[in-house]
Design a protein that fits this description.
7 helices, 347 residues, alpha+beta, disordered N terminus, 22% strand, 9-stranded mixed β-sheet, single chain
Length: 347
């Protein structure tokens, strides 16, 4: 079993901290509203009361049963901040007004005041492993699966048209059309989005009548790994954080807001000789998403970042740093309440 290799996030974060010696701690943002929806594998223990449970259908494929389950967890954090709270974050340790000014995001520097200022752009921020023969795949086939998995991340989270709210046609084409539960999800997600059938679980979309991207740069940090899965399949896991800077679509406001989205997706490249699957596509094993300043309780199918006066009153809740990547998604989601609003420490 080979997962490939990558640079640990904690080592990179330590390098950045040492490079910015003297930087003070960032204040907490007063409120972030959170919710979770979950779909679990049919061999997982029963979920707690109030969580949606989805058991995917079983298919017969020749001699074998074809069973694919999904875990979907979403925690959307709609931050309610007082204007100017971002001032002073990562201000170079000088303190006072100069620190506040240096930490404020602008149209020319939309990532200023956040760790993403030092992150790479687009796919450059996603660490790729070396390919080795695994499961039913040769080294060349594994390499092709890794590249196709990366292409899915581009088509679902970085494509400019998709970010402007268009349907992610290329990304959808990469999904196994024989996977009935995913087919059902896609049938509802864009036309009748809901907590369970939310396109944001897999695709990043903004309503172009409400916001537009502040420039054409998206910052990322994350990694792709892989291992042998069931029946010789190659399971590719992508765990990536995307940082989207946006401004209002109308008017001449120069206020920049950021939506931070972390997704963990397990893409199973299965053997067509073993399961019913269209060659060149993958099945979704699990997927989950955690977003800050994306809206709370919103079911429009778009991220809804908040600006200045739109931010509501402070609320109590679990505190989460959306830029933190040392904690696994399992740990990050474990103690979340399905209806509770939480607090993001920064955007």
């Amino acid at each position: 079993m080979d997962k490939g290799s990558s640079i640990p996030d904690e080592e990179w974060e330590r390098f950045l901290r040492e490079a910015e010696a003297g930087t003070g701690d960032a204040p907490e943002e007063p409120s972030a509203r959170a919710r979770m929806v979950t779909r679990r594998l049919d061999d997982e223990p029963a979920p707690p009361p109030g969580w949606r449970v989805h058991e995917p259908p079983r298919r017969r494929n020749g001699k074998r049963w074809y069973v694919v389950g999904l875990i979907v967890v979403v925690a959307l954090f709609g931050l309610t901040l007082s204007p100017g709270l971002v001032n002073g974050w990562f201000g170079g340790g000088t303190g006072g007004d100069s620190a506040g000014a240096s930490g404020r995001a602008t149209l020319d520097a939309p990532f200023k005041g956040s760790p993403a200022e030092h992150w790479a752009t687009g796919t450059a921020g996603i660490t790729m492993p070396s390919a080795h023969a695994t499961g039913w795949m040769s080294e060349k086939q594994v390499d092709e699966a890794l590249e196709s998995s990366l292409a899915f991340l581009v088509d679902s989270g970085l494509d400019p048209a998709v970010l402007r709210g268009k349907r992610p046609v290329k990304a959808i084409a990469a999904l196994n059309p024989e996977q009935a539960d995913v087919e059902e999800y896609l049938a509802h997600a864009f036309d009748r989005p809901s907590r369970g059938d939310d396109p944001l679980l897999l695709f990043s979309r903004f309503d172009p009548s409400y916001v537009r991207l502040a420039g054409d740069v998206i910052r990322t940090r994350g990694r792709i790994t892989y291992r042998a899965g069931d029946r010789g399949a190659v399971d590719v896991t992508a765990d990536v954080t995307f940082v989207y800077p946006v401004v209002r679509a109308e008017g001449d406001s120069d206020e920049v807001a950021r939506t931070i989205v972390r997704r963990e997706i397990v893409m199973s490249w299965e053997n067509p000789a073993e399961v019913e699957i269209t060659p060149g596509t993958f099945s979704l094993r699990t997927y989950r998403m955690d977003a800050a300043n994306g809206g709370c309780g919103d079911t429009t199918g778009y991220f809804v970042p908040e600006f200045g006066k739109d931010r509501g009153p402070s609320e109590e809740g679990a505190r989460v740093d959306p830029y933190e990547r040392d904690m696994s998604m399992d740990e990050r989601m474990r103690d979340r309440d399905a209806s509770e609003c939480g607090t993001a420490t920064r955007t």
